[in-house]
Design goal:
Order of helices and strands: HHHH
Structural class: mainly alpha
Shape: elongated
Strand content: under 5%
Helix content: 55-70%
Largest sheet: none
C-alpha cells in the first residue's frame, strides 16, 4: 500500500500587513513619510496597535518602540506648538523631528538585522 504523497505547504513569505519583520519596517517607513504625507504616520500607528502582542520575540520590542516613538513624538510636538510663542518651541520642534527620524532609522537598522531593541521603553534614542 502506498501512502499518499503530501507536499508540505511552502513557507508563505511574510506579508507587509501581518505581524513580523516586514510590518515593523513598514511602520517605521510610514512614520518617516509622515513628515511629507501626514496621514501615513496615522496608518503606521494603526498597524502597530493592531499587530502588537501577535508577533512575539524580538519583533515585539520593535512594536513597543514604534508605539512609544509615535506617542512621545506627539507629546513633544504638542509641547513645541504650545511653546512656539517663544523661540524655544521652534527649537524643540526641530529637536523632535530629529529625535523621531533617529529612532526610526535605528528601528529600521535593527529590524533589517533581525535584532531586538535593547531598551524599547526608553524616552531617549
Amino acid at each position: 500500500m502506498t501512502e499518499p504523497t503530501t507536499t508540505p505547504d511552502p513557507r508563505r513569505p511574510d506579508s507587509w500587513l501581518e505581524p513580523g519583520k516586514l510590518n515593523v519596517q513598514l511602520i517605521y517607513v510610514l512614520y518617516l513619510l509622515g513628515f511629507l504625507i501626514g496621514i501615513s504616520s496615522l496608518v503606521g500607528i494603526v498597524f502597530a496597535h493592531l499587530n502588537r502582542g501577535k508577533a512575539g520575540g524580538w519583533v515585539e520590542t520593535h512594536y513597543t518602540y514604534a508605539l512609544r516613538t509615535f506617542w512621545i513624538g506627539v507629546l513633544y510636538g504638542l509641547v513645541s506648538v504650545i511653546l512656539s510663542l517663544a523661540v524655544v518651541g521652534v527649537l524643540l520642534a526641530v529637536a523632535t523631528i530629529v529625535w523621531v527620524v533617529v529612532r526610526c532609522i535605528i528601528g529600521l537598522q535593527k529590524a533589517s538585522a533581525g535584532e531586538a531593541i535593547a531598551k524599547p521603553e526608553t524616552w531617549w534614542v
